[in-house]
Amino acid sequence: MENQTLSRRSFFNRLWTLLGxxxxxxxxxxxxxxxxxxxxxxxxxxxxAIIIAGSVDSFEPGTVTAFVRGKFYLARLDDGGFLxxxxxxxxxxxxxxxxxxKNRFICPCHSSEFDIRGDVISPPAPRALDLYPxxxxxxxxxxxxxxxxxxxEYAADQIVYPGKT
Amino acid sequence: xxxxxxxxVNYLVPDSIxxxxxxxxxxxxxxxRIRLSIFPGNQATESEPxxxxxYLHSFLLHFRPxxxxxxxxxxxxxxxxxxxAAVLVFVLFATGxxxxxxxQPSPGAAYDSIAYLNTQVPFGQLVRNLHRWGxxxxxxxxxxxxxxxxxxxxxxxxxxxxxxxxxTLFAAIVLSNFTGYLLPWDQQAYWAVTISTSMLDYIPxxxxxxxxxxxxxxxxxxxxxxxxxxxxxxxxxxxxxxFLPFHFWRIRKAGGLVxxxxxxxxxxxxxxxxxxxxxxxxREVTMALVLLAVLLILSMLLNAPLADQANPGLSPNPxxxxxxxxxxxxxxxxxxxxxxxxxxxxxxxxxxxxxxYISYEVETAGVWxxxxxxxxxxxxxxVLATAATVASVWLxxxxxxxxxxxxxxxxxxxxxxxxxxxxxxxxxxxxxxRGFKASNNEAIQALFTLLMTAFVVVTVIGIWFRGAGxxxxxxx
Lengths: 165, 476
Description:
The complex is a heterodimer. Chain A has 2 helices and 11 strands. By secondary structure, chain A is α+β, with helices and mostly antiparallel strands. Chain A folds into 2 domains: 2-35; 46-158, Rieske Iron-sulfur Protein. In chain A, the strands form 3 sheets. A 4-stranded antiparallel beta sheet of chain A has the order 2-3-4-9, with no helix packed on it. In chain A, strands 5-6-7-8 form a 4-stranded antiparallel beta sheet, with no helix packed on it. The longest helix of chain A is centred in the first third of the chain and has 28 residues, at 8-35. Chain A is elongated. Chain B is an all-alpha fold. In chain B, strands 1-2 form a two-stranded antiparallel sheet. The longest helix of chain B is centred in the middle third of the chain and has 32 residues, at 222-253. Chain B has 3 domains: 3-62, no CATH class; 65-311, Up-down Bundle (Cytochrome Bc1 Complex, Chain C); 325-476, no CATH class. Classes of the chains: A alpha+beta, B mainly alpha. Chain A binds chain B through residues 35-38, 41-43, 68, 71, 87-88, 91-97, 107-111, 120-126, 147-148, and chain B through 191, 194-195, 197-199, 201, 212-213, 215-219, 221-223, 226, 312-319, 332-333, 337, 405-408, 468-471.
């Protein structure tokens, strides 16, 4: 067969090309790994990860409490369930304040509005507010503020009730 | 040495003394020798005191041709815009280096170091003002330069590739401005960067990764400031230092600027040549000095803003992106994010990149607006685009979307209006081409004008006509 008579020159040319491509890919991979966000580069340390919000009784039903350190709101719904809502608007990440008079979150940037469960009342926000995992043990609420979880809209199984976990 | 070679050497280096050998310098004293070593070929011979070629041996001028066409010196060809942009880059390098000695790139110290610069460092506020206004001026002037190059037909062969280098430079300039915007770490900076980078979230698949890579985390913080500082003070300046001389060198390779002419004159017209020194150099220096004077006066009168220190828990109302991104932020109010942030910008960028490679029917290099007809068509496009953009923003705000409280849908807010805009553009192109019996140069120019005007109008609306909660309001 013809392609078996590979000359030494073209063999080495192919070898260099292959090795060069590999080295280049290695360089790119290295750069990606080097620049990838790392825990140590961001402000959140492990101490910030789990936040003890307090006992269940210290939150009245139908209220929203802000936790500055964890960057979330702890909402207690009228039926007694809890949700830990991210304070970042899902539109462009502005911080949404809770307007207790109107009983909703109103984004100052583009007027998106969310209800107490984080569901969108008024666009442009495309998704409900992100959630942080809530765990209730011995009537003490702990929120894992490491990473918010995305959701498209409110669903009943997102609520955490005291005594059920 | 052959006679021809001898003549050549004498012609290019018309000096009485050329220090090619040690013995050449033996008749000189020590000071003369030092001077000759620095300026080996700058002394004019007595016989040719005004030979412009002597300037070829000056380091600063050696990349300039000895002579330039007299016609290309006309102010109404370039308005000095490219030169002004180069001067501003120089001012930004100089002031940026000065700021680098005071600024501290960490969230705890950045704001205080700027406050310290403003209040304690002699002329600190002035240096910062020059950097700030110079940077904004550079974005604005390079945009005008881009328009000038387009409307004088200076982007077709042989200048095609220089158009791409120019676009690269423009991207580097806008990114420089954007990365510098964060550095003071005040409320304005923090939130402008928050919403600008959050826009990336909407790009499917890669958006969130891209955003977190740029920010070094899920929200602006220590890593973001370090990233932006490195990009702003090292990577982008290095890019500019590489691409600016490339841009200038390409102008020489193309035989200089386009020669301004009326549409009736032939395209290969060149006219009389004049010496670069002083004809071009004097004009450039004048322009640079006037620009510097204006920038200095502006910087003495107006202080660069510094809001409160960044507070991640409190978004100011309204929160706006830097002014050159307000067009995109305004688009985002009307289109589904996928279209506002990906489809439309990609299409525009692709259009700009391919502009020099379309085959055109007429040679229009050097003719403002291609022809008198082209000028009329561009004017029609400006009026039409202004009216249509204002009308559609108003309609979308008060008629179509009022009372509609559902989450924006892909089809209703994305595909439908996008298809409508695309059809309108295509219809405009065909109507203009037929109605004016125009060449494709003129029709494409009209379409370009239509889109640019629309972009400028949405930017203006975003900057000045959006108040609290981004509601439309009358001038603010």
